[in-house]
Amino acid sequence: MKRRTSLMKLFESSTGNDATASGSLLRIEAITNAAFLITLADGRTILTDPWFSDGIYYGSWYNFPPLSEAQKKRYHSLRPDFIYISHLHPDHMDARTLAHYDSATPLLIGALPMPHLERNLKDMGFSDIRVLPLDETVAIEGITITILGQFEGTSSGDVSDVDYEMDTSLVLESGGRRLLNVVDNPIKEHDAVRIVERFGSFDTAIIPYGGASFYPHAFPQFDAAEKARRRDALTERMLDQFVEIAGILKASKTIPAAGSYVMGGRIAEFSEYLHQAAPGQIRARWAAAGNSPEALSILGPGDSLDVASGAIEMLGGALSFNSEDRLAYARTLRNRPLDQDLISVPRGFKIPWKRMLQRARAVLWGYQQRFSACPEHDVILVITPGKGIALPEDRSICVSISLDSEELRFEAAAPVPGRPWSQFTLDAAMMLMLLIQAANWNNVEIAALVELEREPDRYDPTLHTLMNFFFI
C-alpha cells in the first residue's frame, strides 16, 4: 500500500508558541497523553501530568505520536506556576520528566486515602506539595480548583473489595471559564450527571477515549485473530463511553486524551493489540452520534485550543495517523532494552527464592486481613528463567496460592472445578523486582510484562488490587 507520507514527515512538528494568545481567557496546549499546558489570562500556567521520557513502565512504554527533540527541549524548559499530578502511574507521574522542573514548583494533588503519591513526590525532592481535599472547591492564588476523587469501580463498572483509591480528576475555573479534565478516572454516565448538576456547563472537557492494560495482548490463550477481535470490541466500548460522557457534559469543546502510546523492546508487537482509537475513528464515532464536528477538538503534540474563541492552532501535524502507522513506529523500538533485561546475577549467586516467596505470601495475607478481602480464588505463579537470572536446574518455579487461606505451595496445583483461578507467568528478573519493590504489580500488568491465563475469563478487580501487596 502506498504511504501518504514517511513516518519521519508524519511526526515532524513545530515547537509551538510560548505566549498566550492575545485576549485569551484560557488556552490549552496538548503535549502528549494526559499532559497539557493550561495558560491563564494573566500568563500563569498549569502543567498537567507531564510524561516526556522514553521507556517508562520498566522500559515498555513510549509516547505516540512521539515528541521531537525540539519539543522535548521546549517542554523540559517550561517553568509552570503549578503542576497537577492526577495519580501515581508513570504516564502521569514520571520522575525523569519531573526532574526537569524546579523542586519549589507548587504541586497540586488530591488527598487520597493512601499517601503513596505525596510520598513519591517528596522523595523526588519537591518541597511545595499542596494536598487538596477531595471533592471540595478551593481558591488558590485566584484560581478556583476542585480535585474530584476516584469514581467508583472500573470503566466497565466492576467494583473491587479492596478500598484502594488512586485516580483523581480536575475542575478548573478562571476568568469565567470552566474546564474539566477527567484524566484516567473511570467516569461513568451517572458520574457525569452528578458533575453537571454540581458545576453546570463546561467550556472544555478533556475526556479519556482509550485505556491501558495488558488485555488482550498478554493473554497467551488467545490467538492473533482472537486478540484482534477483543481489541476491536474494547476499542468500540471505550469510544461508545467517550461519546456518551461527552453527550452528558455537553461542553463547548471536547478534547479526547489519555489514551495514546506504543510498546517497545521485545514486546513491541503487542502494540498491534492496544485498544486505542485512531483520530479518524474518533471523528467517525463522534459524527455517528450526531455531534457537531466543531465541538470536537483532537489535538496533537503542540496543538492548542483558545477556549474563549474556540479557535484551534494546529502545529503538530500528526493527526493523520492510523493503527498501521502506530505499529510501524513501535517496530522501530524493538531493540530498546526492557529494564529487567539489564539485570544480571552471577550463576553462582543463590537467590533465596523459597524464603522470599513465603515472606511475600505472609505480607499479602496481612494486607488481606487488613482489607477483609479473602476471595475464593487460586493464584498460580510461574517464574521462568530470565535473561540474566538463572533458576535452579534452569527450570521454572511454580507457586500456588489460595487467597482464602494463608498457605503457599511450591507446585502447580491443578485447578479445582468450579473455583476461579488465575495463572501469572513472568521471568525471574521481573519477579525479583516485584519482591524487593523495585516494581509494582499494577504497573507490571499495565506494562504487559506478565502474562495471564484465567478461568473464568472475567476481570476480577479485587484479585488485581491484592497482587500489589505481594512483596517482601
From TrEMBL:
InterPro entries: Metallo-B-lactamas, RibonucZ/Hydroxyglut_hydro, UPF0173_UPF0282_UlaG_hydrolase. Gene3D superfamilies: Ribonuclease Z/Hydroxyacylglutathione hydrolase-like (3.60.15.10). Transmembrane segments: none annotated. Residues 44-211 form the Metallo-beta-lactamase domain. This is MBL fold metallo-hydrolase.
